[in-house]
Amino acid sequence: MKVVSFSCKIYDRQQLCRSFPPSWDSQTVEPILDKHTVVYAKDADVVSAFVNDQLNAEILQILAGYGVKMVALRCAGFNHVDLAAAHRLGIKITRVPAYSPYAVAEHTIGLMLALNRKLYKAYNRVREGNFALNGMLGFDFYGKTVGVIGAGKIGRLVGERMKAFGCQVLVYDPYECSACEALGLEQVPLATLYQRCDVITLHCPLTAETNHLINADSIAKMKKGVMLINTGRGALMEPESLVAGLKSAQIGYLGMDVYEKEGALFFEDHSCEIIQDDVFERLLSFPNVLVTGHQAYFTQEAITHIAETTRDNIQMFMDGELLLNEVTA
Ligand code: NAI
């Protein structure tokens, strides 16, 4: 049984080595899966792939020609897979439905705390012998109102944790959140959330409806100086409106773990290159913006869970069992 895993950084390779049975012929490839690298999948039975791997009809056709019968995604999202083509070619697709909602919720709160108390500035100042406090003034989260957009697994964990800080937590979700009331999270219309919240954090999926949910119009409805946090998906926010909102001080703080055009930047070292994305570079130039490179999920527990679920998905396929995490068109 030959399994070829694409987009494998050193930490992925180490984890897959630990989690995959030694009896499998398991090979890892660092580059993303695309038309130049697909050849590495020759003679494979199974391909494992991550968020930026290309699984369009053309690539799937080549994989089918190599004898690949299954693509085991090591991620939750499958918007990058042509499911209809996979079905036509008889290739099964599975995914890892959730890695660790705790990891993402904790990183979200980390961004809030770091932005408020300027921890990223304090780190550099103190190391340079500068112990001055000017420019470091923060606020108490206690008594503030936090808005959570998307009351799913991650959103509810964030809400619960902000309650522990003494915040009032409002949630918006198009579906009734039956678990919210018991957690003390008040479900409100989106307009109310925009109007009342000091901090707004995004935990809804990226869909046609939520694409650019945060734009000039919605930003104008928020409190002046609002803290905006996005650990959901980059395209939930319209980047040019963020720049305008920061310039006018309508946005007081911005924390992002995801960015609309992150595919060209994230997960790689571009420190010796000239970054061409002017909007991204402008966002980084603000002192009240903190960006991390899609690392909210990145905990030992989460990557272990990803590898083990991928292993189980492949094993189920080999054993001819019902694929619990299969995705179909
Ligand atoms: P979930 O499926 O448990 O919750 C999503 C919630 O959003 C659901 O309650 C759903 O009803 C709600 N929703 C759907 N449409 C909405 C809309 N138009 N407005 C507001 N809410 C809406 O998903 P989970 O596990 O909580 O993940 C949330 C998001 O976090 C994912 O979609 C993904 O984009 C992102 N994520 C980010 C990671 C990172 O490393 N930065 C890692 C994992 C997930």
From TrEMBL:
Presence of keyword NAD: yes
InterPro entries referenced in this protein's UniProt entry, alphabetically: D-isomer_2_OHA_DH_cat_dom, D-isomer_DH_CS, D-isomer_DH_CS1, D-isomer_DH_NAD-bd, D-LDH-like, NAD(P)-bd_dom_sf
Keywords (A to Z) from UniProt: NAD, Oxidoreductase
Domain D-isomer specific 2-hydroxyacid dehydrogenase NAD-binding: 109-296
Pfam families: 2-Hacid_dh, 2-Hacid_dh_C
Coiled-coil ranges (or none): none
Gene3D superfamilies referenced in this protein's UniProt entry, alphabetically: NAD(P)-binding Rossmann-like Domain
Gene Ontology MF terms in the entry: D-lactate dehydrogenase (NAD+) activity; NAD binding
Claim: Transmembrane helix is one of the keywords in the record: no
Record domain D-isomer specific 2-hydroxyacid dehydrogenase catalytic: where: 30-327
PANTHER family reported for this sequence: 2-HYDROXYACID DEHYDROGENASE HOMOLOG 1-RELATED (PTHR43026)
Family the UniProt entry places it in: Belongs to the D-isomer specific 2-hydroxyacid dehydrogenase family.
Protein name: Lactate dehydrogenase
